[in-house]
Design goal:
Blueprint lengths: L1 H13 L11 E7 L1 H11 L2 H23 L8 E6 L5 E6 L1 H6 L6 E6 L10 H4 L11 H4 L4 E6 L41 E6 L2 H7 L17 H10 L3 E6 L2 E6 L7 E6 L1 E2 L2 E2 L1 H14 L3 E4 L12 H11 L3 E5 L18 E6 L3 E9 L4 E5 L10 E5 L19 H4 L3 E5 L5 H10 L4 E5 L17 E4 L1 H10 L6 E11 L26 E4 L3 E4 L18 E4 L2 H18 L5 H10 L19 H4 L6 H4 L4 E2 L4 H10 L4 H8 L21 E5 L7 E10 L5 E8 L4 E6 L2 E4 L5 E10 L9 E9 L4 E10 L1
Parallel strand pairs: 5-9, 5-12, 6-9, 12-13, 13-14, 14-22, 17-18, 18-19, 19-20, 26-33
Antiparallel strand pairs: 1-3, 1-4, 2-3, 7-8, 10-11, 15-16, 15-21, 16-20, 17-21, 23-24, 25-27, 27-31, 28-30, 28-32, 29-31, 32-33
Length: 768
Amino acid sequence: MMYRISLLLVVFLAAAISIASEDKATTYVVHMDKAHITALDNILGDSRKWFEAVMDSITELSTEEDNIGGEEEASAPELLYSYETAITGFAARLSTKQLESLNEVEGFLSAVPDELLSLQTTYSPQFLGLQFGRGLLSRHNLENDVIIGFIDSGIWPEHPSFEDSGMTLSVPSGWKGVCEEGTRFRAQHCNKKLIGARAFYKGYEAVAGEIDEKSDFRSARDSQGHGTHTASTAAGRMVDGASIFGMATGVAAGMSTTARIAAYKACFSQGCASSDILAAIDQAIADGVDILSLSLGGSSKPYYTDLLAIASIGAVQHGVFVAAAAGNSGPYSSSVVNTAPWMMTVAASTMDRSFSTVVKLGNGKTFDGESLYPGTSTDQLPLVYGASAGTVTAKYCFNGRSLSPALVKGKIVVCERGLSSAVDKGQVVKTAGGAGMLLLNARSQGEELRAEPHVLPATSLGVSAAESIRKYTSSENPTASIAFKGTTFGKLAPSMSSFSSRGPANIEPYVIKPDVTAPGMNILAAWPPTVSPSKIKTDNRSVLFNVISGTSMSSPHVSGLAALLKASHKDWSPAAIKSALMTTAYTQNRMKAPISDIVSATPFAYGSGHVDPEKASDPGLIYDLSYDDYLFYLCSINYSPSQMQTISRGNYSCPPKTKQTTGDLNYPSFAVLFEANSRNFSALYKRTVTNVGCPRTSYVVQVQEPEGVSVIVKPKVLQFNHIGQKLNYQVRFVESGKKLSSSDTSFGSLVWESGKYTVTSPIAVTWQ
């Protein structure tokens, strides 16, 4: 072990000896692998001593090197803090080269520059790079009349996120919507912020029976929480002091705090009837919404049988931007839904905020988890799992009969995810007399940690911790404790959420889906005070804000960003807004490493990448599309006259002898399909880009070729002379026969670069 520690130090110090004296020091918070630091603690006593030794050694070696080279003595690195509880690591003042040398250190995870903080939003606007008073959130841009329509479970109109104080502009003159009265909903509930509310339940009642108004409402009032949460995520007003149980404290705000909200309730306790959804979208278009936010979806089906796709193309025809959730059936391939090319399909990924816990086992091992439980930490208690807790189904904590009160009373119960929700499992454990719960991830969920408002001391744990804990439970007299650490920051992000549905599209896979990813994990937003945070009937807790996860949370982020872009560029089409968000998205985390997944993330997980709203406001080039372009695309995939009529409402017939192929759709990404046993197969794609950046500028193409494919672009340079100018280019994809891997898909990118702009399109080539 001593040899291992010495070697680690030598690698670190050797990398630091060439530090230049003019390289100014900056304070960084350095995150280290807890397992490595724990091993060092056993030798040096505690981690701070090791960090101090590193600092001292760097100083000595730097001084010696500078003396040999005759250079001015380099500034010594300065250790400020060592962290052992909330995170594992240290804060230090380091030069750029000293920082770079950390990459050679085993156990180094990441380093984040220190910064002065003020009262923050909670928290996604900041994570997305938005700053109030600047850019898209400037006062001028926030004075707008953009209207977002939410097809969801309704809204809680009295919530402070939907107040109109300070909104000086009247309701837009062209607005045709109303505030429908119904159960516990009056016209007076609408204001300059919430300008419309309707409910659609005829289809639902036809299937599920008459709505029980003891638990739901035949009005736009929200009894589920979902609609209130999504509306405030996209367009909630700024609310000071928002939190859940004292965690995630800050200023809650939607993406577009001044956008108007119109709530269309089409979802109830047992689901959402397609007929109601279609009626809601239809009415929203007629009312005059600019954006539609659809945090719902069904199964993949041809567009001509997909009512959501059909309704959405009708919205686009009227200039309405449609953002839709990619689905929560990940990480499985081809699970993505809402895949029509006229919809903005949004995946879900993480932020760098955590609600941290520490689990300590009786053997001394510790594991990091997450939880929203607001109580105190537990003592070291007996640990039970599976047969030691009850019946053969006890490991899933599925219902009251699976656990034996005699076996679990006063103990911490280990539960596997699956069969029921995490908070329901906690209630089962509590009812049986358990004192706590450890919730273990399955392999498909990886290290992803969901924070949930448990009704007893409980925490979620990643797959590596789960494997260790399962083994430990078979030892003699196993014990565990759970410590709750509250809100922490600095987790490596973004990474893909395991639940986020993956591409390629199962039906019509001629475009890459999803389109982008946005924050969807552990999102805090508004919540009805009458709905408990866990939604368990016996949970009597009341909150104004709740933390939940899903692509239902990522989609309204994009709805709100689209509203900001619409306000900034009033003449942009829905396709232009979509293009701007896609071509400016990024595919690296905050440490400039590729966005991670359970294995490795690809465009079938994140599409074009993670949204970057400020860059999207000035994208340089856009790929524009009209309603007719989408219909012509459907002709290219051989939709029959009757199918085309279904989608176009009978107003369109495919041109005879059309020569357009699927590759001619002017989409901001490239999905290429080859036959599995083809040789030297090629496909020609055509694109048109519109200049929305500098009047006179040239773009040069850069291509990262997918494995096994040659990519030929003509022309290689685009020269623009004025704003609004359109130029065409062609891309030929040729199978090269040099593919080495056994995968049936390979990925690349096509980038148009100028001095100021980088316009990126992902490439996905699939052999089928």
